[in-house]
Amino acid sequence: MSQTSVLYDAPGPRAVRRARIGTALAILAFLGLAALVVLRLADRGQFDAELWNPWVNPSDDSFSAVWGLVGRGLVATLVAATLAIVLALVVGVLLGVARMMLGNRLRVPVVLWIELFRGLPVVITIVFVWRAMVELGIDVGPLPGDPALWYLVIGLTLYNSVIIAEILRAGVLSLPRGQREAALAVGLTNGQTMRTILLPQAFRVMLPALISQLVVVLKDTSLVAVIGLGYLELLRRGNQISQNLDNPIQSLLIVALIYIVINYSLSKLAEYVERRLGQASGSSAGNGLDAGTAGSQAA
Amino acid sequence: MDPVIDNLDLYWSGFLRSLSIIGWSLVGSLLLGTLIAAFRVSPVASLRAFGSGWVTVVRNCPLTIVLFFMAFGLPELGVNASFYLFGVAGLIIYTSAFVCEAIRSGINSVSAGQAEAARAIGLPFTLTLTQVVLPQALRATVPPLGSVQIAMFKNSAVVGAFGVGGDLYSVGRNLTSAQGFSYIPVLTGVAIGYLVITLAAGALLAVIERKVAIAR
């Protein structure tokens, strides 16, 4: 580690030697473990060309079909995630502002709403939205696209909008109190203070958390694969392919890699934006959101 | 709400089954996550690389894929177990990455000056660690670790939807598709079950946070 660690002294010659020996031993252990896995895979014929060719060999009959299906699945995933994050942002800002600006009594239903959807597993929310809308005969037909897409998007929006409302509130709370006091002192109304002073600053602070939330949304679109909602996004496509080709390990690996590459890039982007914002303002304004980001990441 | 009232015993057993998924995953993810966190802060470079690789892969992969890998990938390698075991193992692996990051952020929140001051007054390494660094790190770890675990409680519903059988989600599925009750009352019962778990956990966490809070 380049920066000083709180746990260890700067290592002396003996500690450096010990660390090197430890590193070598651990590498040996990992290699041994990897060898075991590879042997097992080979033993089970998992390196057979017929299992891999549809994915890696352009001259294979299924190659273009398989990648075409995955491509469509990826587009479907991105469409659902984008719609959900945009809608969640709009609804979330409204909810967050309502929670902060309404009087004590009017605020109660908003707080209950937020606590309700924050406490529900998102998978339950999606199933509930889907089944209840079908049962009540609420028609999503007028909306463009697949009805299944809208059940998914509405479910994701309900969950993520309350998360965004809380991120926004944390952002406003992390601003110095003097901002609000000064705005009120120069005669701005409560609404003007919120709109022109607090929200613009809070948005800047919450941008990294918002990007991290997009990772959560992207991952959650794949929930349709376990609840049986007929929206053919990336994981469902991958699952279909793996069933047709009878190669679950290979197909799931490819699909997982696609998710990891996209989400890893988004996480890095969030870190980069956070660093940039930290430099620009030269303050610790970003710190108030750390706990919120860590928590919502897991959802 | 008749379908719920008439099947309260089913709901109760589903509730307990969900709690057992949560309990095992809680213990397992804390152990595995702590181990990975120890890797990530260790002076041994290869362990650090393994730890950060683990976190990068697991954290950016949807839980559903982890579960699919367990249930459809492992049998190809001749590893067979019940869906319950696969589900819990998948949830443990997934949550461990978040536990690791929560613990690491706790350790990082202790400023290097604390350890330097401890060494300056002559404390040996073990005492520096056990008397100065870890007590502060553990306290700072509580809030993020708590929210990670509450997220895991909610993710147990994904494991249920995946097909563990007998848990709250499965009870809902069973009552609606097999027995033909209408969805809204049945799913409302399921939702209340999960809300009881997450809201109680949230309240408990708030109490613990207040107990361990440090004024800095």
How do the helices and strands line up, and which of them pair or pack?
The complex is a heterodimer of chains A (299) and B (216).
Chain A: H1 13-43, H2 49-56, H3 63-101, H4 104-119, H5 122-135, H6 147-173, H7 177-185, H8 190-221, H9 224-227, H10 234-245, H11 248-281, H12 290-298
Helix pairs in contact in A: 2-3, 3-4, 3-6, 3-8, 3-10, 4-6, 5-6, 6-8, 7-8, 8-11, 8-12, 10-11
Chain B: H1 2-6, H2 8-41, H3 45-59, H4 63-73, H5 83-108, H6 112-120, H7 125-162, H8 168-178, H9 183-212
Protein name (chain A): Amino acid ABC transporter permease
Transmembrane segments (chain A): 21-42, 74-98, 110-133, 148-168, 205-229, 249-266
Family (chain A): Belongs to the binding-protein-dependent transport system permease family.
Notes on the protein architecture:
The complex is a heterodimer of chains A (299) and B (216). Chain A has twelve helices and no strands. Chain A is mostly helical and 299 residues long. Chain A has two domains: 13-43; 70-298, MetI-like fold (Orthogonal Bundle), CATH 1.10.3720. Chain B is built from nine helices and no strands. Chain B has helices at 2-6, 8-41, 45-59, 63-73, 83-108, 112-120, 125-162, 168-178, 183-212. The mean pLDDT of chain B is 89. Chains A and B meet through helix 1, helix 4, helix 5, helix 8 and helix 9 of A and helix 3, helix 4, helix 5, helix 6 and helix 7 of B. Chain B: InterPro entries: AA_ABC_transptr_permease_3TM (IPR010065), ArtM/GltK/GlnP/TcyL/YhdX-like (IPR043429), MetI-like (IPR000515), MetI-like_sf (IPR035906).
